[in-house]
Amino acid sequence: MIVMVFAIGAALHIAGGISFAAIGCSLNDPDRDIKKFFPRSTGYRTEFITMQERGGQRLKEEVERTLGDTLDPLYESLDVPYSYYRILRGKEVIGYMHGVNQKGMYGTLQIILATDPTGTIIGCYYQKIASPEAAKFRESSFAGQFIGLSLADFLNSSGASGRVAAIKDPTMNNHRDFTATIRGIKKNLILLDEFILSAKKVTENTKAGAR
Predict the structure, then answer these.
(1) What is d(CA 151, CA 191) in angstroms, rounded to the nearest whole number?
(2) Each residue of 90-116: pLDDT tens digit?
(3) 72, CA 20 to 30 Å: which among 25, 97, 108, 181?
(4) Where are the domains positioned within the chain?
(5) CA distance 114 to 122
(6) How many whole angstroms separate alpha carbon 67 and alpha carbon 190?
(7) pTM of the entire structure?
(8) DSSP string for 26-95
(9) Distance of CA 138 to the CA centre of its chain
């Protein structure tokens, strides 16, 4: 079962013509990619969300504060449509898959995360990377260092003892793509929290208050 859900703002962008800069990061082969990380899934729903429709400039500034960096006007503009795959087993949401474009040293990095319903990483891979040392970045020993991390780990990573600070650069000459990867994964988790998890909490609290 596959259900496609287009957020209103994204649909308007499509109808009006998305600019070249406003290109999101969708899974190349959702059926294959989702089954790899969620073999017990029975389907998924896809939603496209932009910062413009969820808060515009205010949300952009909030994301920048949490990220600790300025968003790139080309890769991270307000009208970029972010793709979210809600993974289902029956009617239950058992996780999410979502990706971001991140500016790297040799071009765009496309970083895909698979997360459980709380936003904890259970899978991480590059859908696109052009580094001469790409093979080292793609090694499971590197990607495995992100398994079990959540946004809280990235927000509390100051000091050498932090879990994120402990992640090792697998390359000799491509530290810029390593730091870009850390930034991209942090951004990915921030947007998941803003677009999906926070909205879920509001819905749950509203239902609880109505009882």
Answers:
(1) 10
(2) 999 999 999 999 999 999 999 999 999
(3) 97
(4) 2-206
(5) 6
(6) 8
(7) 0.85
(8) --SSHHHHHHHH-TT--EEEEEEE-HHHHTHHHHHHHHHHHHTSPPPTTTS-TTPPEEEEEEEETTEEEE
(9) 17
